[in-house]
Amino acid sequence: MRRLITAIIVWLGAALVSGPAVAAETFRVAIVDRFYPPVNGFASEEDRDQHTWLYGMLDLDDDEFKEPYYHGDIVRLIASDPRFIFLQYPLSGQGHPMADILRNLRVMQARQATMPVDALILSWESSTLVSAFDVPLNLGRVRHYKDIVRQWGDQYPEWRYTYEIILALEALVSDGVMVFTISGNGGRGMVNTFSFAEGVRTVGSIERELQHFIADNPFVDMRTRAAYQLTRVDNLAGEVLGYDIDGDGCVDIPLSKLTARNGRDTDYPRHYWKTLKGSSFAAPAALKGLLLEGQANSC
């Protein structure tokens, strides 16, 4: 009996020690973006088709109806890992997107005490010409640059939103949130002013062929993969299972999610013709790489 009691005590001690380690492997990741379906749903089938055609990212089955994946859905898929718990903060699409972003950031900050997040992906930009500031940009002048944005906000609502977003991002960083934003897709002559938020991680591209497209400046902290070509995944019998986005061999978009409205058998291409590219897709990859530190994932 004494031996049994000792064994139970040892088991309980091991459980108490191992508990926090398991919890530490799980991260709550917030994404502020546009997701399918929209917040208010669809008024009709026609409304759904129009909305999906406007915001959908892919037509994998070539039936002229885009699949139910919007920008935020793709960002989430690239970041996806069993150790991540995603909290989606959707843009309503009912007003100015910058106002929507700001509202979501404020809600997120208010919830930190009860529903905290470890990291945030904001794959949006509020960019302008680098020449609007010092040339070349100087990290030591960031407060001056933020003050310029604040002054623009006195005249233009979109810049007022931008300045408030910068402050909201800094507040989240102060709360211990790892914030990832993007360098922007306007080329080397542009800067995403969200990157002026102190403590954020601004992500650019490692692909040389995208240097003309994706912004790069002293405020870019990280550079990683920004281009993705979807590859078909088959089972051992040669049956199509779906598509893999990030090249890990896992099905990210299952066949059941495709619209397939053309009324005929679809010859699903081995590689989807459209390459997804942009710093929007570098940010989730950077978050995944940094938080998981190269740990392998299984399907």
Provide structural commentary.
With 299 residues, the protein is of the alpha/beta class. 34% of the residues lie in helices and 20% in strands. It has a six-stranded parallel β-sheet, sandwiched between helices. A hairpin with an 8-residue loop joins β10 and β11. α3 runs parallel beside α7, α4 runs parallel beside α6 and α5 crosses α6. The longest helix is centred in the N-terminal third of the chain and has 23 residues. It starts with a helix and ends in a 7-residue tail after the last helix. The N terminus is likely disordered.
Oligomer: single chain
Strand content: 15-25%
Q: Which residues form runs of ≥5 with pLDDT under 50?
A: 1-24
- Neighbour order of strands in the largest sheet: 2-1-3-5-7-8
Rg, Cα atoms, Å = 22 Å
Helical proportion?
25-40%
| Number of beta-strand segments | 12
Shape: globular
Task: Look at the helices and sheets and give the structural class.
Answer: alpha/beta
The main β sheet shows up as: 6 strands, parallel
- The helix tally amounts to 7
Terminal CA distance reads 44 Å
Overall pLDDT score: 88
Query: What is the succession of H and E elements?
Result: HEHHEHEEHHEEEEEEEEH
Question: What's the helix and strand layout?
Answer:
Layout: H1 2-24, E1 27-33, H2 45-55, H3 71-79, E2 84-90, H4 97-110, E3 119-122, E4 127-129, H5 142-153, H6 157-174, E5 178-182, E6 190-192, E7 201-205, E8 222-224, E9 227-234, E10 240-244, E11 253-254, E12 271-277, H7 279-292
Parallel strand pairs: 1-2, 1-3, 3-5, 5-7, 7-8
Antiparallel strand pairs: 4-6, 9-10, 9-12, 10-11
